Amino acid sequence: QSVLTQSPSASGTPGQRVTMSCSGSSSNIGNNYVYWYQQFPGTAPKLLIYRNNQRPSGVPDRFSGSKSGTSASLAISGLRSEDEADYYCAAWDDSLSGGVFGGGTKLTVL
Amino acid sequence: QVHLQQSGPGLVKPSQTLSLTCAITGDSVSSNTAAWNWIRQSPSGGLECLGRTYYRSKWYYDYAISVKGRITISPDTSKNQFTLHLNSVTPEDTAVYYCARDQPPYFFDSWGQGTLVTVSS
Q: What share of chain B is helix, strand, coil (3-state, %, to 5)?
């Protein structure tokens, strides 16, 4: 059971905009930054969004993050087939004194 | 560019100790800004932070409650690497284990390649 809650699946067609959510509590998302990771099968997660809405160098601006209260969202615009992957949110948890992740959202591009 | 290279066995017997090493290039395990983490991913896909070590004039260690008492993370400055030891393993410890760097502002920005560890007799 993951500390952060994500919908298990999402889908969209090429060119569409899709969003996925991440829900937490005051001890994690409510009081700390949110991070998003993209993972393809058999590979390590890759940092996609840091500090709620910042993109590391090389991440397309089609990816955007936002946070409100104890929830966060990742949006992907202009959906492409290569965006099909698992997406995880993460945050620091003050109560646990450690990082916590969501269970992941599997994105399917139809 | 930071590179993390993991090594260690992929099969461990129940009740024994799981040991994995993460060799660092492009940064230092003694960095005053980074923290060095072990994270595992269960067969169902969930990611779990197991613990970390970092240096801020002295060494610090943080361990997840779920594995506290069984886990040790040891830095080795001479080899610029850090090692995970998880003892008394059970089949529930079967997972892909990753080492990762936490470098503000990025959190986990660099990851090792992952090691599938199976706990089985």
A: 0, 55, 45
Give the minimum alpha-carbon distance from A78 to chain B in angstroms, rounded to a whole number.
25
Query: Which of B6, B49, B52, B102 to substitute to test the interface with A, most A CBs within 10 Å?
Result: B49
Looking at residue A38, what is its pLDDT? 98
Q: What's the CA gap between A71 and A91, in Å, rounded?
A: 11
Cβ-defined contact of B47 to A97 (cutoff 8 Å)? no
Rounding to the nearest 10 degrees, give the CA dihedral for residues B96, B102, B105, B110. Answer: -50
Interface touch A99/B106, C-beta < 8 Å? no
Task: Tell me the per-residue pLDDT of B93-115, one tens digit each, with 9 for 90 and over.
Answer: 999 999 999 998 888 999 999 99
